Amino acid sequence: MIEEHAVAAVARAFQIDGEFESAARYGSGHIHDTYSVRFHEGGRGGAHLILQHINTKIFKNPVAVMENIRRVTTHVRAKLDGLPDADQRVLQLVPTREGRVWHVDQEGQYWRAYRFIESARTFDEVRTERQAFEAAKAFGQFQRMLADLPGERLSESIPHFHDTPRRFADFESAVNADAAGRAKHVQEEIAFAMKRRSVAGALVEAGLPERVTHNDTKLNNVMLDEQTGEGICVIDLDTVMPGLAGYDFGDMVRTMTCPAAEDEQDLSQVEMRFSFFEAVLRGYLTGAADFLTAAERESLISGAKVIVFEQGIRFLSDHLAGDTYYKVSRSGQNLDRCRTQFKLLESIERQELEMIKLLRSIGC
Fold it and tell me: Contact at 8 Å (CB) between 253 and 280?
């Protein structure tokens, strides 16, 4: 925990008028240290911002990440110009007093600041089809507005993040190495994955156009208006980088359609709820409008299978390696995580024809 006086010193490095008032931990994220910071300025109110200490163990090139975010938010803000609530609909970086969009403190730690978005909130769990629709619509709009982002290709904030064939090769290596001596206990899961080897290449081998994608399309990465429930602003932009449209759609299906926890041990609770899938699909296509090619639309169901499969083999690989990547709070947790993904994939496979039928029934 960083002391308040240290947070105050960092906050003063950004272009904020007034006097520091308070700082408090904010949100439920596990990657960065995030603070809600308030300044006051006499009788004129004050400023409210989100201050984040960037985790450079995960994002090893924070300058490239921040340059990606600067370009993306500037472009989206220009697209929204003229709307009365434009400043609510895109993250606004606060520059430092030196004019950069990141600050390096005396310990060499990286920080950034955003204007706080009022009258909107996030949810960690999908409770209704309406929430799923609104979040998916917001992510579809986000992709569409960035389809014509000018300039050079964005940096890969995490290289090979959704390179599923590479992930599968890593899984095979984990099986062969069997570093923790666990392979003999998970032969059923290994066989399940090996049988679906072809799923790994379903997107990357389809010749689809590269897009600017979010790559972490959970419900809690969209702010919903407190009054209307509308998805108004996509947040957590660290993983915005080049990718395929199906990556984002697939992760929405993975995280928004299943009612079970990611490490659920009662696999009877794990399923893809078709009504929630329909909400995600209709929301996403509404937001994306006509920027998707016909091939990209057809790839969306494959995207759901690929992303669920990819996450499953990542959990299984880490279990085989001895839980070296994902944090665990109990023995076998990564194996349980793997099993929920594989059970969800089976549920998708059973409903795939109906999913395709629904997709093709929705007009462009």
Answer: yes
Tokens coding 337? 């995580």
210 within 8 A of 146, measured Cβ to Cβ: no
User: In this structure, what DSSP letter does residue 268 have?
Assistant: G
In CATH, the number for domain 4-117 is 3.30.200.20
Q: Which residues of the chain have pLDDT under 50?
A: 1
Eight-class DSSP state of 96:
B
Output b/e per residue, 303-318; b: 16+ Cβ within 10 A.
bbbbbbbbbbbbbbbb
pLDDT of 42: 61
How far apart CA 83 and CA 205 sit, in angstroms, is 40
* pLDDT attached to residue 46: 77
| DSSP letter (8 states) at residue 93 | B
List where CATH 3.90.1200.10 sits in the chain: 129-361
Element spanning 49, H or E: strand 46-53
CA 331 – CA 328 distance, rounded (Å)? 7
How far, in Å, CA of 123 to CA of 135, rounded? 10
Give rounded-to-5 percent helix, strand, coil for the chain: 45, 15, 40
The one-letter amino acid at 331: S
CB 280 within 8 A of CB 254: no
Its pTM surpasses 0.90: yes
CA neighbor of 322 nearest in space, from 142, 182, 158, 214 = 182
> Which among 280, 213, 277, 296 has a CA at the least distance from the CA of 248?
213
Token representation of residue 168? 């599968």
Please give the helix or strand (H or E) that residue 50 lies within, else none: strand 46-53
User: Which residues in the chain are classed under CATH 3.30.200.20?
Assistant: 4-117
